[in-house]
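Work package 3, deliverable 3.1, input record:
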Amino acid sequence: MAKRFRADVLVCGCPDCVEAGAQETLFSLKEEVRHRGLEDEVRVIETGSRGFCATGPIVIIEPEGILYIRVKAPDVPELVEEMLVKGRVVERLTYTEPATRKRIPYYREMPFYSEQTRIVLRNCGLINPRSVEEYIAVGGYRALERVLFTMSPQEVIEQIKASGLRGRGGAGFPAGRKWESARRAEGEIKYVIANGDEGDPNCFMDRSLMEGDPHGILEGMIIGAYAIGAREGFIYLPYEYTLAVENLSTAVRQVREYGLLGENILGSGFDFDVQIRLGARSFVGGESTALMHAIEGMVSEPRPKHIHTTTKGVWDRPSNLNNVKTWAMVPQIISNGAEWFASIGTEDSKGTQVFSLAGKVNNTGLAEVPMGITMRKLVFDIGGGSPKNREFKAIQIGGPSGGVLPASMLDLPLDYESLAEAGSMMGTGGVVVMDDRTCMVDLARYFINFLQEESCGKCVPCRKGNKRALQILTRITRGEGTEEDLETLENLARVMQQVSLCGLGKTAPNPILSTLHYFRNEYLAHIRDQYCPAGVCRELITYFIVAEKCLGCGLCIKICPQSAITGAKKEPHVIDQTQCIQCGACFDTCRFDAIAVKSREEAPKEVVA
Amino acid sequence: MPKLKSLEELQRLRERLQKDLKSRVQVSTTITVGMGTCGIAAGAREVMRAILEELEKRNIDAHVTTTGCIGMCSKEPLVDIQQGGEPRITYGSVTLAMVPRIIEEHLVRGNAVEEWIVGRVAG
C-alpha cells in the first residue's frame, strides 16, 4: 500500500536561498524529521523558487500553506517540534508586512502572492523540479495528450492565435503568427528553439522558471514542434545558470526515458527530441539571430533580418524561436482554452507578465501579474513600497535598454503599448525601483556603460554611439558638461534608434531619452548649478553636518570609512572635508536628518575650507 | 522507468501519481488531530497514523493536520473534522478502534457519529 503523507515541507533550492543556507536547512530538516520519527507522515522536498527569495531560505509547509522566511539550520528543531509535531505556527519565522507591521503566516494571504496570477510560475516552488512524476501528478503533459490525439497542427496554431499570446522575450510579437509562418515555410527540416539566454542585469525570471519548472517549458516546446512540423529543438541557456542547466538536463533525460521525447511519442506517430546548448551569459546573445549563430557554433552576433528566421534560421532552415516563458504558457492555454487566456490582461496584451522587482523596494523578487496592472499596484501593493519610507522617485522598466518612468505616472497600466508610448518598453519585465537617492544622470550612465560593454561591435551606430554617449554622460556627472551636450545626446540617440542593426542598438538610447524627457532638470542641475540633487555624483556634492540638528550620537563617526568625522559625545560633530570621499554613508545612517547635501559652492565656506 | 507507449499508459501513471501530491492541492475536508503534550500522552500519534492509513485504504481526499492543546485535555485524543463551510465537529477520547467508523460514517456516508461528538464550532 502506498504511503499517505500528511504534510510536505517544501524547501526552496534556488541559488539565493542556497546562498542563505538552504542546503543546511534542508539537511537538518530531514535529520530532525527522522529523529522525531515523523518520516512516515512528513516529506521534506527541495523545490524551485517561489519568487520571494530575498528573505531566504524559504520553507513552505503544505497543506497549511504557511510560509517561513530566513529559516536557518538552528531554527529547525523548534520548527519541527512546534509546527510539525504540535501544529503551532512559529510566529517569529513568519513574514511581517512592512506597512502594517502585521505577521502573515499564510502565503496565500500575503499581498505579494494574493495580487499575483501565476500561469508561467504556477509550479515554481510547489513541485520538485527534478521529478517528472510530480509534474505529471499536477496535470503535466495533459495538454500534450490533447494536442497529439485530438488536435491537428493547424488547430493548435488557431488556439494560440485566438489566445492573443505574444512573445515574452521582450518584443511581443504574436506567437501564433510566428508559428504559422514557420509552419508554412518551405523545408523538410525545421527547428523550435527555447531562448533562456537572459542577459539583463537584475532579471532572473527565465532562470527561476528553468530551475523551478523545466517540464513546463519542455511540454510547450513539444506542442509547438507538433504545430510547426519540427522534429528537433534546442534549448539555449547560459552555462553560468548551473542549477537551471542541471534541472533542465534532468528533465530532458526523464521525459526521454518515459518516451515523451523521441520517436513515436505515446504511439501518436510524432517524433521530436531536444538538445540543450550552452552559451556564456550575454546581453546581445539573447537576440534571436545571434542566438541561432551560437547554436551553429559561430560567434553570437546578430545579422540583418531581411529574411525572417522562420524562413531561414539555424543552418538556413525554418526556425521558430520563443522565450522560455512563452513556451511555458502554451500548455496552460491548451488545457484551459484560448478564451480563458484572452480574458486575462488588456485589449492588446493578453495573459500575464512576470516582473522581477529589484532596487529600492521592500519585497524584491518575482511577481507574475495580469498585463495592464498599474505601476502603483506593482510597486506598492506587491513590492511593499520603498524601504525606510523614502520617497519613491521612478522605476526603470524593460531591462538596461528600457526606459525610466517617473512617480507621476504611477497609474500607467503596464502593457506593451502603454509602455512603448511612454518611451519605455516591456522587455523581459525587469523592474528597478528607485527612491530620491538615485541620480538619473548617473543611472543613464550606468546603463549605457553596461550596453557599450555588451555591444557586439558589428554595426557602427551601436559600437560608437554607446561609447560616445557614455563619454558625454560621464562628463556631465563630473560637472564638466554643457547644455549643448544634451542636444548632441538626443541627436546621437535618434541616429542609433534608426540605423542600428539589432534590437540592442535600437533600444540602447531609451535610458538616455527617457531620463532627459522626465528628468531634464536634473541634467541641468549638473550642468548649470554644478550640483547633483540626489547626492550621488561625488564630484558635485559636499556633505556637512547641520549643527542645530546634530545630537552628537556618534553613529556617523562609527560608520565613516575615512574616519573623517570627529566630535565629542552630545556635541555637534564635524566632517573633515579634506578626508571626505562623499560616499554618503553618514547621510544614510543619520537618524536626525542632520547631514545635509549641498553643491560645493553652496556649502558653508568654513566647511569647504 | 518504463517507456510509455500509449495515451492510456500516461493517464494511468498520472492517476497513480496524483495520490502522492494530495497534500499540495486544495481539498474541502481537513482533519485536525490535537497534538499537545496531553494529546500525545493519550495516544494522538497512533490515532493520526491510523487516520492516514484509513484515508489511504479508502482513497479519500482529505488533509490531515495537527494542532496544539485546545484546553479539553481530559478528552484527548481530540479529532476535528471540518468539511467546506460546515461547523467543525470534534470527537473526543478517540481510540484506534474508533477511527474506521468515524471515517466510514462521517466522511464516506456523511453522517457524524453523534455519540462520540464532544463539541461543534461554527465556521
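The two ends of chain A are 84 Å apart (CA to CA).
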